[in-house]
Amino acid sequence: MVSLSSRANGKPVFKKEVIMLDDHLFKLDLENRIIKLSTPNRRTVLEFYPAKHHEKFRDWRVGQAWLVRTPKGVFINVVFSKEVEIREPEAFVGVDLNENNVTLSLPNGEFVQIITHEREIRAGYFLKRRKIQKKIRAGKRRRELLEKYGERERNRLNDLYHKLTNKIVELAEKYGGIALEDLTEIRDSIRYSAEVNGRLHRWSFRKLQSIIEYKAKLKGIRVVFVNPAYTSSLCPVCGGKLSPNGDRVLKCSNCGFEADRDVIGSWNVRLRALKMWGVSVLPESQPMKTGGWKVSRNDIYELYANYG
Ligand SMILES: [Zn+2]
């Protein structure tokens, strides 16, 4: 039952802030940008200003919906669904998520690093907030300003994650598989305590992962989650222990292999996905020329050339 009644002038009056809509009580018409609602008294037609992404939901199934009143206006939230077929992956792209870059290990042996500048974006907004707190007395105006910049930062990061994900999905599409680190059991793992520096903020991590998972599914790409323990401390070539050897470079004490830590991280994530999927990893365990693993400049994508 929709608890919505109509005034004489036809404008609906809300008795609640949130109104759930059963599917037989409303009809969404994306073409004509209207929603037809059945109220206890009569049918009401509401015009809506579609969100910017409504185009892509045209052929999706309309599920649960609800009307929400906020200080900014009345919104309709609709759950759209679509059935997708996930292909059998041929290989996996290993993904290592960091605060300032995302490194990908491709099945053809190449590595791609995407520079995101997330740290600078966060630092910039942190400074802005601190300035506001210093200059403006506690009260409504300060709260509003802090809220405004908080929203801007979230929008900015969301936008960044979507662009980033588009690139990852584009690179993974022909292989059909993406491997990410499983974050559900890593609360106490080494990587997130001792090595928390340079790692992506936990909120960001989950947010970014969920966007990757969602966009990958739409393209029929399988996403697998691997155990993240020791992905940056074991040699991907021989399994030996790695030690720091200069800035962000790790070296294997067993076979002498040496590479950038993010390259190693993404490589190990990819190898774990292969093992998990029952693919032999033998061809890759041949010792490789040491010291030759640098992500070349050509493989570096700058997502944001400037920021601020
Ligand atoms: Zn080694």
Description:
The chain folds into two domains: 4-81, no CATH class; 93-302. It has a six-stranded mixed beta sheet. A three-stranded antiparallel beta sheet has the order 3-7-8, with no helix packed on it. The chain has helices spanning 118-135, 140-172, 202-218, 261-276; strands spanning 4-6, 12-14, 18-21, 26-29, 34-38, 43-47, 61-70, 73-81, 93-97, 101-105, 111-115, 177-181, 222-226, 242-244, 249-252, 258-260, 300-302. It is an alpha+beta fold. The protein starts with a strand and ends in a 6-residue tail after the last strand. Strand 15 and strand 16 (258-260) form a beta hairpin. The chain is built from four helices and 17 strands. The site of zinc ion has 8 residues, from loops.
Explain briefly what this protein structure is:
With 308 residues, the protein is α+β, with helices and mostly antiparallel strands.
List keywords for this structure.
disordered C terminus, binds zinc ion, 2 domains, alpha+beta, flat, 308 residues, 3-stranded antiparallel sheet
Using only CA atoms, what is the Rg? 24 Å
- The helix fraction, in percent, is 25-40%
State the major sheet: 6 strands, mixed
Q: Helix-strand pattern, N to C? A: EEEEEEEEEEEHHEHEEEEHE
Instruction: Give unreliable regions as ranges.
Output: 1-8, 187-198, 282-294, 304-308
Which strand order does the major sheet show? 13-12-9-10-11-17
Between the first and last Cα atoms, what is the distance in angstroms? 48 Å
- Which molecules are bound in this entry? zinc ion
Structural class: alpha+beta
In one word, what is the shape?
flat
> What share of the residues does DSSP label as strand, in percent?
25-35%
Q: pLDDT average, as an integer? A: 80
